Amino acid sequence: MYGIGLGPGDAGLLTLEGKRLLEAADTVYASGDRSRSVAGEHVPESTIEALSFPMTDDDDRLRRAWRTAARRVAEANRDGDVAVVTLGDPNVYSTFGHLRRTLEALHPDVEIEVIPGVSAATAFASALGVEIEAGSGIALREAIDGAAPVGPDRLVLFKVTDAAATAEKLDEAGYDVRFGRQLFMEDETVMTDDPDELTDGEYFTLAYAEKRDLDREFRTEVFRTEESRTEETRTEGDR
Ligand SMILES: C[S@@+](CC[C@H](N)C(=O)[O-])C[C@H]1O[C@@H](n2cnc3c(N)ncnc32)[C@H](O)[C@@H]1O
């Protein structure tokens, strides 16, 4: 069974290996509309089956769902190759982990291979135009329901459902915050530092927080000075 990371949403950000295995799979399982539609850019949607993982804290319901999903995957795996797709990377804050652990415990005959995907944990940087410079510290955290965990100078916060509350607390803790909603997801992307633009609690929202007044010194800084000197010389020559 292949656990395939689909990347953050744009079909073009699936790895070549992920695409090869997805196209070769006899059965494809997806656990949400988003992953279904990204996978559907590569294989016919009619061939993608749904795995359901309820959004609940009820342990019994969750365990029942994981058991059922694992049984279906194990049965399909007897008849051919199975791909289970997840957005981003299967091993980063993903429901795939529950399925993998359930399979390992209850169906140890199923061989599992994970194909990494481009995680929102790194994709946010390109989308928001952020550079995590060599030598910097950065942490991944979850920030559900207005939580605002703090830590090193830079944080990537997943599952930001109350952007305003998270922003307020981070501001008090000395961080500047930027939000990315539905990054790499067609026309729906929002990038903003104004939490009031994100009042609907959209699930695919993350935040990047950076300590204010970070002491940054780049070796390349000298080029800027050189460039401005050259500019000055040129302007003087023109006079
Ligand atoms: C259950 S986690 C899955 C993470 C995924 N496995 C990964 O590696 O990116 C879901 C959270 O990831 C973040 N996320 C994933 N894809 C995103 C995207 N395209 N744009 C913004 N946030 C995203 C959101 O914070 C969302 O609540």
UniProtKB/TrEMBL annotation:
Keyword terms, alphabetized: Cobalamin biosynthesis, Methyltransferase, Transferase
Residue ranges constituting the Tetrapyrrole methylase domain according to the UniProt record: 2-193
Enzyme Commission code(s) on record: 2.1.1.130, 2.1.1.151
Entry's Gene Ontology BP terms: cobalamin biosynthetic process; methylation
CDD domains: Precorrin_2_C20_MT
Any GO molecular function: precorrin-2 C20-methyltransferase activity
Stored Gene3D superfamilies: Cobalt-precorrin-4 Transmethylase, Domain 1
InterPro entries membership: 4pyrrol_Mease (IPR000878), 4pyrrol_Methylase_sf (IPR035996), 4pyrrole_Mease_sub1 (IPR014777), CobI/CbiL (IPR012382)
Organism domain of life: Archaea
Pathway: Cofactor biosynthesis; adenosylcobalamin biosynthesis
Record-stated family: Belongs to the precorrin methyltransferase family.
Protein name stated in the entry: Precorrin-2/cobalt-factor-2 C20-methyltransferase
Source species: Halalkaliarchaeum desulfuricum
Gene: cbiL
